[in-house]
Structures are given as C-alpha cells and as structure tokens.
Design brief:
- The structure holds three protein chains of three kinds.
- Chain A folds into two domains: about 90 residues; about 30 residues.
- Chain A contains four helices and no strands.
- The mean pLDDT of chain A is about 85.
- Chain A is mainly alpha-helical.
- The longest helix of chain B is centred in the middle third of the chain and has 26 residues.
- In chain B, helix 1 packs antiparallel against helix 2 and helix 2 runs antiparallel to helix 3.
- Chain B contains three helices and no strands.
- Chain C is an all-alpha fold.
- Chain C has one domain.
- Chain C contains three helices and no strands.
- The radius of gyration of chain C is 15 Å and the shape is elongated.
- The chains are: A mainly alpha, B mainly alpha, C mainly alpha.
- Chains in contact: A-B, B-C.
C-alpha cells in the first residue's frame, strides 16, 4: 500500500463512521431540532471527509479526481446548510418549539418576538 | 484496499437503515423530511464510493448533480410547511 | 463482484417499501416525501447497473421536478384524501 492509499483510507473510514453516527442520531434523538443537528451537520462532515478520501486515494493515478471531488465538496458545503436552515425555520413557524425547561425562558428569545408579532397582527385585525 | 470499501458500504447501509426507520416512525412531517435529507447525503457519498470502486471517472457526475439539486425538494417542502409557497 | 448483489437487493427492498408506503399512505404530503426516497434508491440502482446517463436524468427529474410539481398540486387542492384523516 502506498502512502496515498493509507491516508485516503483513514479519511474514508472517518467519513463512513460520521455518516453512520448521523443515521444513528437521527433515530435516537428526541426532538426535530436535535434530529436536524445529527442528520445534517454530522452527515455533512462525514460526506466531505469521505469524498476527500476518495480523491486522495485516486491521486496517484491522476490529478483530475481531486478536482472533481473538490467541486462536489464545495456544492455539499453550500447546499446542505441551506436546506437545514429552511427546515428549522419552517418547523419553528409551525410552533413546534424546542424542549426547554420553564425556568430557562431566556434561552428562547425568538419565541417572544414571534408571539409579539402574532399579537400585533391579531390586534390589527381586530381593529379592522 | 477493497476491504475499506466493504466496511464503508456496510456502514452507509446501516445509516440508511436507521434513517428509513425514522422515516416510517416519524410523528410529524418535519421528521420525515429530515430523514429524506440525511438519505440524500448518504446516497451522494455512496455514489462517490461506487465510482471509485468501478474506477470510472464519469460516474462521479451523478453525485455532482445530486449534490447540486438535492436540496431543492427539501426547500420546497419546507416552504410548503411554513405556508409561504 | 458478488457483493454488488447485496447492494442491489438492499436498494430494491428500499424501493419497493417506499412505493408501497406511498400508495397506502392517506396523507399526500408523506406520499410525496416517499416519492423522493423512490427516486433516491432508483438513482443508486441505475449507477450500480452501469447506466450513468439514465441515473443523471433520474436525479435531475426525480428529486427536483417531481417534488415541486406535486407540492404545488397539493397546495392548490387538498392535503388529506379524506376529511376524517385530518388530525
């Protein structure tokens, strides 16, 4: 085994382990937001590491592999957080609030803003 | 080198199996959409592994297209759930 | 290359399971998400069966266009098949 195959193999195993842990976390976590955390961040890291590992393994044959793998890594790094953010905002707007103890009201400051906006809209509608 | 691919494929299949279980069990629409997003990322990694196993450079284009377009469906479902589509 | 048989079998099980789920589900939004899973498994199957051009077309159409068209259809009609399914 050459040096490229050893380094690339280690990167591939790390990436596969992160993808497996992302799948496990999406099964075990209790809340939508925790599942988003496990199912998007961990799998993004795992996919980036695995694709970089494949590029490194193929590097001793030709340099064209690592260029295409870099393009795939860039697109994953752009597109995965967009979908995660859109989904989290949609679930928050549907009033599926994260689980917070009632003494820690300061942790969820954004909820007060949304409730205040809804109250304002309701009063405006009542005025009309 | 081929044993690394075996281990990788088994781990990816297990992760996808867990996502499928969450897809069947998930109580709300958000859980199922999260499972779909996770499965998309796992399939992209699996396509890259498959292109490395077959040693065909052109097979990685499918993974490229999937990583470019894969988030559009999730965004459309999220905008529908938000009520702003 | 005999291990490819197991991958093909796994993807076929996912494909058939998602198709049965999409047909039997009463909530049409969940059926649309199951359609995305069908497209996912079908793309992996086409790549393993050495047809990358068909897989490119399936990835472009199945994941983006089908979902958008079905979601717009649900938006303009109803989400539930029956009124008593609404929770």
């Amino acid at each position: 085994m050459s040096l490229y195959e050893i380094i690339g193999g280690i990167l591939i195993i790390i990436g596969a382990a992160f993808l497996f842990l992302g799948g496990l976390g999406i099964l075990r976590m209790p809340d939508v937001y925790n599942r988003l955390q496990a199912g998007t961040k961990a799998t993004t890291m795992g996919a980036m590491s695995l694709i970089l590992g494949v590029g490194v393994v193929k590097m001793e044959d030709s340099w064209t592999w690592i260029v295409k793998m870099s393009i795939i890594i860039i697109f994953i790094a752009i597109s995965n957080p967009i979908s995660s953010h859109a989904l989290a905002r949609a679930m928050y707007r549907r009033k599926r609030y994260p689980f917070i103890k009632s003494s820690d009201k300061n942790m969820d400051a954004y909820r007060e803003i949304i409730e205040k906006e809804e109250k304002d809209e309701k009063t405006v509608m009542n005025d009309q | 080198m081929i044993y690394i691919f075996y281990i990788t494929i088994v781990l990816l299949a297990l992760g996808m199996l867990f996502a499928i279980i969450r897809f069947i069990k998930g109580p709300t629409a958000g859980d199922r959409t999260v499972a779909l997003d996770t499965m998309t990322t796992i399939i992209v990694a699996g396509l890259v592994i498959m292109s490395a196993v077959f040693d065909r450079f052109i097979y990685a284009d499918v993974a490229l297209i999937y990583s470019v377009l894969g988030f559009i469906g999730v965004i459309v479902i999220a905008r529908y759930l938000e009520g702003a589509l | 290359m005999s291990y490819l048989v197991y991958i093909i079998g796994f993807l076929l099980l996912v494909l058939i399971g998602a198709a049965v789920y999409a047909v039997r589900q009463r909530d049409l939004l969940y059926a649309v998400i199951a359609t995305g899973v069908i497209s996912l498994a079908l793309t992996g199957l086409f790549v393993i069966l050495q047809a990358p051009d068909v897989a490119l077309t399936e990835a472009a159409i199945g994941v983006a266009l089908t979902t958008i068209i079905f979601i717009i259809t649900i938006r303009n009609t109803v989400r539930f098949e029956d009124e008593k399914d609404k929770k």
